[in-house]
Amino acid sequence: MSIDWAALGQVFGVSLVVTVGIVGLFTVGIVGTSGKSGQEGEAAVATAPGAGARAGAMAAFALCAAAVAYGIYLIVAG
Question: Which residues span the membrane (predicted)?
């Protein structure tokens, strides 16, 4: 039995990049939907995110969902 180290390295590299990318997109979505709190020393009043931030967050969540759905498709169809 021999191990193809180059193929194993490619699988590891692609998995690492895709995982970091999906987590990054999800983080952008969470930040886009979160309200901003006031400065230190001010009253603790949270403001709602703007329409652009909310639309960007929804796009990031949609891309995450699409990536997960494509991964499930690859596993089930194979």
Answer: 12-35, 55-76
